[in-house]
Design goal:
The protein has 191 residues and is mainly α. Helices cover 72% and strands 0% of the residues.
């Protein structure tokens, strides 16, 4: 009888462990999905806010001081109602985001709003596209993206091999990196 009770306890433990792992995997997987959905919704929301700001500035012809005063008041009102995230600089970023990405479609790489806050300050479309694609392909964090921008990766690649390399870099900015062999994935030259 004692052996039967021990076997039952052992079977129960295996069952609990199995159920725990299954449930744990579902929770982890769905938390990741939720994070991506929340992030995409935040980015879309900020894009739409930027669009409203731009469209109400009389096609960008609003006087600078008048526009600044409007955005200050709007920022204060939004912050009072919805909390942080609507500072004057935040609204400027949303406005700039809309002007840089007028035909915005959230990319499959799920860049965060923080990523876009670095990308929007790059004026050149090819350069911005290059960093965006590399960020997605290489899964750069926002800090890594900032580091690569600050180190002028795009310009260094353009200068490194003359005309041939310039063509390759511009192609990368439009298509992203293509992986043809396992060595294309390795980032470390030594390896």
């Amino acid at each position: 009888m004692k052996i039967n009770i021990l076997k039952k306890i052992e079977n129960d433990e295996h069952l609990i462990t199995s159920m725990y792992h299954q449930i744990s995997n579902i929770i982890t997987e769905n938390k990741t999905k939720m994070i991506y959905q929340i992030n995409n919704t935040l980015v879309e929301t900020n894009f739409m806010i930027g669009k409203i700001i731009v469209e109400n500035e009389q096609n960008g012809n609003i006087r600078a001081e008048y526009g600044k005063d409007i955005l200050k008041k709007l920022s204060k009102k939004l912050t009072n109602e919805f909390g942080s995230g609507f500072s004057l600089s935040g609204l400027y970023n949303m406005r700039l985001f809309y002007t840089r990405y007028k035909n915005f479609q959230p990319p499959a790489g799920n860049l965060s709003w923080s990523h876009y806050c670095y990308l929007i300050y790059i004026e050149d479309d090819d350069e911005r596209s290059f960093y965006e694609k590399e960020c997605i392909n290489s899964k750069w964090s926002k800090r890594e993206l900032k580091r690569q921008i600050d180190s002028s990766l795009f310009q260094r690649l353009l200068l490194s091999d003359g005309k041939t390399n310039k063509k390759k870099v511009l192609e990368l900015s439009k298509k992203g990196q293509t992986i043809n062999s396992p060595t294309d994935i390795l980032k470390e030259p030594y390896v």
